[in-house]
Amino acid sequence: MFRKIVIPVSYLPAAKQMLHWGAKLAGQTHSDLTLLYVATPQQAGPINIRVTHEKMTEWGVEPPSFRILREAEELVKAEGILQLDDQGREVERHSFKSLNEGLGEVHLQGINDGNIRLRLREGPVVSEILEEVEDPSYDLVLIGTRGTRGFRRNLLGTVAQDVALQSPCSVLIAKNLDKAKAILVGVTGRESSHEAVRQSVALAQALSLPIRLLAIAPTSESMERAQTYLEDGLRLVQALGGEAELVLEAGDPAKTLIQTAGEDHVLALGRTPISLMQRFFLGDISQKILDKGKCSVLIAVPSRASDSGHSD
Amino acid sequence: MYFLRKLYPWRWLIVGFLLGAIILVLPTPDGLTPEGKRALTIAVVATLFFITEPIPLPATALLIAVFQVLLGLGTGNEVAKSFMSDSVFFIMGSLMMSVALVKQRLDRRIAYGILKMTGPYVSRILFGFAAVSALLASFIGEHTVAAMMLPVALAIFGHAQKDHPNLKNLGALLLFSVAYGTVIAGIGTPSGGARNAIMIDYWKQLADVDVSYLDWMAYAYPLVILQIPALVGVLMWTFPPEVKTLRRALVRLRREVHSEGGLSSKDIQVIVLFFMVMIGWITLSSQIGLGIVALIGASLYLLLGLVRWEDLNNGVNWGVVWLYAATISLGVQMKDSGAAEWVAGNFLGFLSIVGLDQGILLLITLSLLTVFVTHTMSAGASVAVLGPITLTIAITSGNSVLATGFATAISSAFAYMVVAGTPSSAIIYSSGHLTTKDFLKVGIRMVVVSLLILWLAMFFYWPLLGV
What we know:
The structure holds 2 protein chains of 2 kinds. Chain A is an alpha/beta fold.
């Protein structure tokens, strides 16, 4: 299901739990894993900042971007997904340690023949992450959320929200990830929600979490339809070798989802295909949940690559 | 809400163009020519873009050229010509030489020299760093020296952290001594910063006053020397160091640097060539121009194979050259169209009401205004925006054009409080060891101290030079 995962890391203390999950998921699903750091370009002085960074490497001083990636690598290494040589060092496949043009990469050998990449890009955070996942072999972005509150957040949203709404692959926005006890999948009968079910099963199996399927009937007449959605969902889960608890609720979809999910679920939703104009003016349910919800959210998008083995 | 979110990043661009359109359709005020109003429109919108940066600064520079032609302020050829001048050559040549210098391994020798002289005491090391950074920066440009010295400071800090893992203030002290050391010295000579070259251009084009390399040094260099001990004092006061000496760190660092041996012949060529350029600036600039001397230097670096063109091409931020070219062109346009005179007249009128329109009070007011403006945009852009206005104020009010120009150019360097204020600050901030609050904390004290030193020079020293 998941073959290549990217984790953008920016602030390590907040990313620890996410790296732990990502490494576990990559290890269990034999996926490739990319740790991405996006460095914001420095205020342009008369001479380019990379001249200074080259000097720093001459003196053996690490630029902050390298430091964060190296520390992230240590955390991932602790999860035991890196292949180590006799002396306990990581096995490097090839590396491109350069800061020129803002792109640098170190490519490590993972266990199970996977690739673990440390990658550095330079530019505006959201667009660089989106550019990275343009590569069709990516099927999941695992991204943390932190920072602003109140007015500014309402007006601007967060990096995670912008990525989630525009990403061509699935996005898991980590929030209170350490509290997650189960995966709650919102089922609607649409193909997008089937995709959410499929990805949730893969996630649940890799992380040994139970699955709960939730259908919401906005009106009392739609109760019966909601029940069918649940049964369809359950059949799909079972076909994939899983089990699920069924939950039927009535009420406003966004509010009910947020309430039921609380803090201790990973909420999985399919990304509803709505037109750009609609999204531009109205937003959609997943956006409301990203704004108000207190749990991690998986926005599932169907994979773009063919299902033949690992991609490089 | 999502609609607003999408528009949010564009807000200043929209506001800027709307503002421009509104000024253009409003009736022209008395005393302002229609051309003046159009030039002023470009200046107002460009200033807003310099402050808010909705598009990259060089893109604003391109728009300045485009709108000068579209609004009928000149033909394509005329505007193109106004973009290029000896000052722009000087900025380009100096930047290329900067990169050539940074590319060498001179920083190793400089670091070794400083540490040999200062010994292990923190206060002396800081003084050494500040003084050497200042001395070098006043000739080869502040950003060059900051780029060279930042790794040295970080290397010392790294070694010190091995003995004392919880140091914070020491890091700030070392980094600020480098960055502010270069900033206080950028005012010392015309090659200290591009803004100085811009002011020299304005003097020539707006008031027909020639200022040579040595003239500049005579006015400004004593301020550099006075500011060095002041800087060390302010730094020690703001960030009291956790340790008094760095003996063990220095032993390790000296060993590391010493193992490389003496100066190579390439190092010597680089240094000799730079000294020749400096002598050229002092002796030849009145005949062939500062810019041509700089270009001779840059060409020689390339001819002698001391630097590759690829390195120069990647190292120089050419967008900055565009920016300065555009702002100088706009400044001259403000003067020619009468817009500068109109703004200056109104501003003077306002100052005369409060009695600040003459002599030292006027200079103090203008320096305060410049310090405010330079915290909102780059120093070069501040001089470019304010220069035509402050010089016209001096001409109309009968004050010294030289003193006013120096007050503007020098106080534009005092952008200590914000990270983006000067390239040196941005460089040390990129190390990841400082917060924006650190800049505010020490910056406000430095602004006060530097302004006091400038005002003392205005009051007591410049009159001795006949201003």
